[in-house]
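Recall the central idea of this unit: under ordinary conditions, the amino acid sequence of a chain determines the structure it adopts. In this exercise we apply that idea directly, starting from the sequence alone.
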Amino acid sequence: MSKNKLINELFWLRFIACLAVVVGHAIQTSESHFLPDDSALGISAEIRQVIYLSLLFGTPVFVFISEFLLAKSYPVNVPKGFIKKRVQYLLVPYLFMSVVYAFIEAEVWSVKGLSLEIAMNIFLGDSTVYFILIIFQFYFLHIILNRYLNKWSPKVVIVSSFIINVVYLSIFNFIKSPDTVYAQYIWQKGYWIPFVGWLFYFTVAYYCGKHYSEVLKFLNRHRLFVIIMPVITFMLVLVVSKVLVTVPWSSKRIDMILYSLSVIFFIIYVTSKLKTLPSIVMFISSYSFSIYLLHKAFLALIKVMHPPEWIGMYVYIISAFILSLLLSIIVSYFLNRLSIGKYLVGAIKIYKPKANYKLEEKKVS
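Accordingly, the structure predicted from this sequence is:
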């Protein structure tokens, strides 16, 4: 078995997805800061809405990458201590940041209020770091289903998972919730957590990781289709957003499935043609997990500071984006210099740009 090498395209995926998530949340922060009439009306608001919708592929990309790497790195069995290591470097930061966001999001800092907020964040994924719970479900799915997915027809599995995924999301996208507090919470955000809502990403990522060289060949054969699909699927997103106004503006929508996958394949295709990998791409990619964990905390701090209205919405968005990105990197860097830091805000690994990391197929005996 040859040593598994890194893949340029994954650096680009992480880089682009990370920036998309931070920009999207910066837009949300600015919308809540400025007056409602300024954020809800006019051509300027329409432009922001289009930009925001176009960036909602960010979280699906991170979810996709997690299973892609798992299938690529461990095509037969995961190594001993696999779950223990993930608990240390993923679940512990999840627990820590769930507490941090409980203090940020709690309306009243009381024992009861904070305890409830912490419990909801940890057990219900009621904070911005919820995606870690999805990734952990993918780990267990991979361990349980790997032997079967190796035998079953990829086409049948992918099509079946797509149908299941669409039916599941359709329930919460299009059916009104029962008139109870618990049901309304599930319909609002509780349905995000079960893996069923992300199943299509799992199966596609699994087979892409297993057969990446074949995937690249497929993308090259159908390059015109790969190039135009993000445009076509995003037009669908815009139509759904304007016509079906009850559908939430989030990455957990049925139209986002096709849009997110089309963006993923477009990025893979385009970046696979590039001969070099910029240092900034590797740098941001290396910090992407910490940025995802921390950036919204700094956006909350920026919001509390109440910048003057005269700076304008777009200056505010750009400033909030840059500040939250830089502060996340700085805090992660200094905390990682402490032995405990990587267990709080995620470990960072800086890759040197001297090599052009390319795929080397893993041979399985």
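The mean pLDDT is 89.
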